[in-house]
Amino acid sequence: MDEILVVGCGLSGVVIARQLAQAGYKIHIIDKRSHIGGNVYDQVNEKGIRVHHYGPHLFHTKNEKVFKYLQQFGEWVPYKHKVKAMLQDGRYVTLPVNRETKDIVGEENIVETFFRPYSEKMWDMKLEELNPDILNRVPVRDDDNTYYFPNDPFQAMPKDGYTAIVKNIINHPNIRISLESPFQKSMEEHARHIFNAMPIDEYYDYRYGELPYRSVKFHTINLPMPKLLPVTTVNFTHKGPHTRVTEWKNIPAHGENNQFTTLTYEEPCDYKDNNNERFYPVKDLQGTNRELYKKYQAIPNEKTTFIGRLGLYIYIDMDQAVNAALKTAERFLQKQKKLDQ
Ligand SMILES: Cc1cc2nc3c(=O)[nH]c(=O)nc-3n(C[C@H](O)[C@H](O)[C@H](O)COP(=O)(O)OP(=O)(O)OC[C@H]3O[C@@H](n4cnc5c(N)ncnc54)[C@H](O)[C@@H]3O)c2cc1C
């Protein structure tokens, strides 16, 4: 039996690989990067502090099945994320906006203080040009709750990091991995089926044009002090280039160091100004970009299933990536079962 090819060693690819490996299929995962894990890749730095290479990844979900699935592959420690915004005068207020923040800033100033500067930096578009979905992801509350994800019952961080979780997911005798291996069409020839997490427009040589993405440049520094921030992440309300900063040691199981603290500042940019690192699909008001994606999606391709945030041109949280991957694997197995009957 020919192998199944999985392009992309991120959460979407590795969960599909694991499910099919357990069902007896031989899997080959390739990734163009030199590490496993895709965007959840993390590592411990020279100061003993764990840093997420592609920005802070906080696991939170309502989906118990997904959390239980991930718990098979390593220990998780409870952690509920908190975020503050720094006002122009240096004061910190809670985000998402709660009753207290509203009282301090004034209800009439919320959009101009928190949403306009952050969103315009993030997307390089006027607030009015953006799809309202983007703003709807950041609710405004009437209570004094200070948690960032108040409605998600399962919130935790992997005790030994995300990379260790991914390593355990792919630790199966039916799975082999090739890193620093960019996808080439010739690889499809001998594959029984391909699950592909690469950008769909790149796969089709941009025949209908490019799908736009925003990216983020991460600037990580070590400061010679025990701790700087009151919470893990602080968003800026100023017009400077950075949107937010994360202090890693505020997350449990992210290392201890009494002399140094590690912080990562985020500077949004176009993906072409950051080595083609595509992070956030651009949701324009008219939906033009989504329409373009649909043209790519409609191209018949029996042997390939596009997966993940780049294959489907969509922003998905980790729990959604795992949930979608479990469903995709299940559909494939059901289809094969019918074919074999
Ligand atoms: C800045 C940022 C912060 C985030 N924070 C959170 C958070 O707090 N909580 C949360 O739940 N989610 C968060 N997410 C979302 C999370 O990163 C995704 O849900 C998850 O990484 C999706 O996994 P994936 O496998 O679909 O994609 P990816 O992890 O991107 O994996 C795709 C893989 O495909 C590889 N690839 C691409 N093209 C090729 C090619 N041509 N050949 C070979 N390999 C290729 C890439 O190198 C990559 O490793 C965040 C995302 C970003 C960008």
Architecture overview:
- The protein has 341 residues and is of the alpha/beta class.
- The protein has two domains: 4-77 and 156-211 and 285-340, 3-Layer(aba) Sandwich (Rossmann fold), CATH 3.40.50; 83-151 and 214-273, no CATH class.
- Helix content is 28%, strand content 22%.
- It has helices at 11-22, 64-71, 99-105, 110-123, 132-136, 162-169, 200-203, 288-297, 308-311, 318-340; strands at residues 4-7, 27-30, 42-44, 50-52, 59-61, 76-78, 83-86, 92-95, 154-158, 175-178, 193-196, 213-223, 233-236, 244-247, 261-270, 280-281, 304-306.
- Strands 8-7-13-14-15-12-16 form a seven-stranded mixed β-sheet. It has a five-stranded parallel β-sheet with strand order 10-2-1-11-17.
- Strand 13 (233-236) and strand 14 form a beta hairpin.
- It starts with a strand and ends with a helix.
- The protein binds flavin-adenine dinucleotide.
- Flavin-adenine dinucleotide binds at residues 7-13, 30-33, 38-40, 54-59, 182-183, 197-198, 216, 279, 308-310, 316-319, 321.
